[in-house]
Fold:
Amino acid sequence: MAKKLDYSIKENQGIVEVILAGSLDATNAGQLLEEMKKLIGNDIKKINFQAADLEYIASAGLRVIIFTKQKIGRDAEVALISPQQEVKDVIKMSGLDNFLNIEA
Structure:
C-alpha cells in the first residue's frame, strides 16, 4: 500500500517552505499542485522543497516541481532540501537537477 503524502506550505517574505513527507505520486500530486497554484502572482524569491521525510517521488510529483518553477518561480531559486537518496536519484535521472538546487 502506498504511503500517503503529508505536506505543509508556508510563505514568509517571499520565501516558500514546502515540507513534504511520505510519497508524492499520481494519487496526491494534484492536491499539492492546486495548493502551489495559489502562489501564482506572489513575489516569490525562493521555494524550498523540504524533502528529508519524502520517501518516494513519481513523475506526477516531478511535474509539480516543474510547474512550480515555470509558473511561480521563474525568477526564484527552487531548491530540494535534504532529499533521501532514492528521491535524489529520481531527480537526477529526470534531469531536474539542471534547474533545481539540491542542498544537503
Summary: The longest helix spans residues 59-72. Residues 18 and 86 are 19 Å apart (CA to CA). The chain is about 30% helix and 35% strand.
